[in-house]
Amino acid sequence: MATEHISNQTIEEAQQEIIDEFAFLTDWMDKYEMIIQMGKELPAIDEKYKVPENLIKGCQSQVWLHADFKEGKLIFTADSDALITKGLVALVVSVLSGHTPKEIIASDLHFVDDIGLKSHLSPTRSNGLLSMLKQIKHYAIAFNTLQH
Amino acid sequence: MSTILSSSEIKELRRDFPILNQKVYGHPLVYLDNAATTQKPSQVLEVLDNYYKGFNANVHRGVHHLSQVATDAYEEARKTVADYIDAGEDHEVIFTRGTTEGINLVASCFGKAFLKPGDSVVITAMEHHSNIVPWQMICEEKGATLKVIPFDENGVLQLDKLDSLLDDSVRILAFTYVSNSLATVNPVKEIIAAAHNKNIPVLLDAAQAVQHMAVSVRELDVDFMVFSGHKIYGPTGIGILYGKREWLDKLPPYQGGGDMIKTVTLEKTIYNELPFKFEAGTPDIAGAIGLAAALKYVNSIGLGRIHDTEAALMDYAMEQLQKVDQLRMIGQAKNRSGAISFLLGSAHPFDTGELLDKQGIAVRTGHHCCQPVMDIFGIPGTVRASFAFYNTAGEIDALVAGLQRAARILL
């Protein structure tokens, strides 16, 4: 069974926490170690959701993203075959999972820029990350429409 | 005298490549992506600069002085290339945009003239996409079949299958001299002779060969050969198609336009002769002159010394990489050149590559435009370190240390 990521923080608080954690790390290898560690802690996606329909397009490595809708909140689970990618996915999931579609639609995701990741990610990874954020917003818009 | 460049000679030569002297993420740049593109020496950059500052003009057209100077330099460049590959005559050398365009040109023009339904084209399973897709396209258009010479688990072509593959339906054989993903050096002369024995012409992809070893088109007796300027210390956007005159004369033109015509009326155009027949439009004049400068630079060091120096560096790298736990090489042919492809345990090649990058080490990761090769090995891709004569033993040590650090994080 997939473990769910339920957050008591707001999206903004979750972003700030990540920014603070990364602020201590000056060496890029340490930052990457942290990203990979986050990936290892990412709640596992149920194997049955690792299907082609859940693959994010635009990623060079494979990324599966699954959305559940429970008690008005979107719960994301995800996985990747590459560890750094999985870590980046974990960062995004930890910030956005467990929030309402409205909160997700309204969110301004600035942490990727703030921790200096965007300019250091290889273009293919950074495109993949953007594709994933776009997919999450699509889910949020879709579930928001369904609610009303 | 040793044929291997000494470390002080390499140090001196590195001064010709100012780009190598920089830091990436606080670490000295270790550039090991030479099979993707090589760096350019100042000698090439100065020639480009001089061309634009001193004698930029269109070629083969103008009556004026600058046009004559530019035309002379452009045609002199063709001669330099012809000498470098030992072509019989300058006009057998066609300037293209690169290896990819050269193969597309031959596939398209050869296909138009000689392929019909039921015919076949033979390639190998270790080709770059640029030596697969153009043939697939023309085969589809002409109702011909694409047949493939397989390779074994070491990355060595299974030539025992060659004789049966080269049957009566085969019109052309196209294959690579050196594999860009596995670094295998194929027994080119033997394969060409086998094809010629059955009157089958051969296109050789020499993109990963001409910068590492002496290649004589006449000694190989190859019918077509292609390579790119940017992989042999020249500018991007320029490449070479060599073709035997007897073949190039038989092919229809590739693109229409200026320079490739003798006379044009609105009813009928008479095409120009070689090499202009295949060079429609204003060519990459600066690129051609820059490529010639690059070849002269290589000759000034000596291709033999470059070959021996790189071979010694490859040996050192293979020996040192044994120190990295769980490193497995992909492609174990005895005869390899220019690159080492590998995987670090179960780590995704992108992860390994990205952690090397953050330590200032530039390698290529992924399928290297050889998805069929990766499918055969059942892997998503590899990490590829590829070498030039300017790489040092110290850089190999940095690679080994970088991989050990990446392994501690990833495995």
From TrEMBL, chain A:
The lineage of its organism: Bacteria, Pseudomonadati, Bacteroidota, Chitinophagia, Chitinophagales. Gene3D superfamilies: 3.90.1010.10. This is Cysteine desulfuration protein SufE. Belongs to the SufE family. Residues 20-138 form the Fe-S metabolism associated domain. Pfam families: SufE. SUPFAM superfamilies: SufE/NifU. It comes from the Bacteria.
From TrEMBL, chain B:
It holds the Pfam family Aminotran_5. GO terms for biological process: cysteine metabolic process. InterPro entries: Aminotrans_V_dom, Aminotrans_V_PyrdxlP_BS, Cys_dSase_SufS, Cysteine_dSase, PyrdxlP-dep_Trfase, PyrdxlP-dep_Trfase_major, PyrdxlP-dep_Trfase_small. Transmembrane segments: none annotated. Its cofactor is pyridoxal 5'-phosphate. Gene3D superfamilies: Aspartate Aminotransferase, domain 1, Type I PLP-dependent aspartate aminotransferase-like (Major domain). GO terms for molecular function: cysteine desulfurase activity; lyase activity; pyridoxal phosphate binding. It is an enzyme of class 2 (transferase). It catalyses: (sulfur carrier)-H + L-cysteine = (sulfur carrier)-SH + L-alanine. Keywords: Lyase, Pyridoxal phosphate, Transferase. Coiled coil: none annotated. Belongs to the class-V pyridoxal-phosphate-dependent aminotransferase family. Csd subfamily. Catalyzes the removal of elemental sulfur and selenium atoms from L-cysteine, L-cystine, L-selenocysteine, and L-selenocystine to produce L-alanine. This is Cysteine desulfurase.
